[in-house]
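Researcher: I've got a protein sequence and the SMILES for NAP. Could you write out the 3D structure of the bound complex as structure tokens? I'd like something to compare against our soaking experiments later this week.
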Amino acid sequence: MTEILNRQYYLASRPKGEPNSENIPSRDVPLAALNAGEVRMRNLFISLDPAIRGWMSDEPNYIEPIALGDAVRASVIGRVVESNSENFAVGDVAMTMGGWEAYTTLPAEALNKLDESMGIPLSNFLGVLGPTGLTAYFGLMEIGQPKAGETVLVSAAAGAVGSVVGQIAKMQGCRVVGMAGTDEKCAWLTEDLGFDAAINYKTCGDFSKAIGEVCRDGVDVYFDNVGGEILDAALSCMNKFGRVAVCGWISSYNAEELPHLKNLWQLVAESITIRGFVVLDFLDRFPEGVGQLVEWLVAGKLQFKEEIVDGLDNVLPVFMKLFDGSNQGKLVLRLPED
Ligand SMILES: NC(=O)c1ccc[n+]([C@@H]2O[C@H](COP(=O)([O-])OP(=O)(O)OC[C@H]3O[C@@H](n4cnc5c(N)ncnc54)[C@H](OP(=O)(O)O)[C@@H]3O)[C@@H](O)[C@H]2O)c1
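Model: Sure. Here is the predicted complex with NAP in place.
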């Protein structure tokens, strides 16, 4: 019998700045025999998320850093090809925390079975019906607490999380302003998704001035996907009792030093609540969140974009699209079935 090899992209060294192929080389590892209770999946989709860059570092984070020598960690969806568990049969499809690899092998308890019979494209479970959709839903509703008539500002607004945040805020009766990095993304926000205005942060000049001009009544909720200078500028435009939901700081993930924020005093001056969160804080409410997102999708109230790119060997350059803004919505890598 020919030996089956598992192609993996693994963390050989911790990146300083942007990760490169020396930090993350590939290797082909023979598949070991399954232990009792283990299940092996051939991966069909690998989720590419900005957070993965943080897990490559050994700075304190909300989960353990990826250990040197391990495959780069990522959410994956795969089809079961071998099972030593009565809970999974060959052919089942499941989602789990796996890696940048062709096959993921784990104890059955670590896998969440997905129901293909519903006809939902599997990649949706990594995006709008998965971690990024849930981040948007819980982050906005629980931390942002939007109220009808308020102004909600969202950064990385054309991305997987941001685009859903803005649409949910519109459904709450808010005025919604997005910030994104190209005119095409801004046009998608206002013409297709119903945002009231969009700012191209790469061409607008001074951020505080640009936000102030578009948000003439100030900002009540800032959903922060980027951190850094945009967060600082948003703070200078917040209204009394405003809320800042700190979701992510993508502008700093490849930076060696965090930018100095000048407007933190606004937290005191305007009695602002600022709260960070990770979507896992709401783990016990995921069924509620998925239910609500499905309802909106089916009702045609929620639109989303996915960019699906083929080929495990493209994983690193495709991942880097998140940081130059060339991804169009939820970024997913697709692997061949056989
Ligand atoms: N807290 C949580 O549980 C949680 C969960 C999921 C995601 N997140 C965070 O949410 C944020 C968005 O994630 P996502 O998965 O939805 O990715 P995404 O928005 O689909 O893609 C990342 C986008 O970030 C923008 N960006 C990149 N570098 C930037 C910079 N220096 N300044 C401003 N914008 C920049 C780019 O869009 P432009 O073209 O507009 O620049 C890029 O397309 C990230 O910070 C991520 O870490 C947090």
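Model: Residues 131-144 form the longest helix (14 residues). The chain is about 25% helix and 25% strand.
Researcher: Great, I'll pass this along to the crystallography team.
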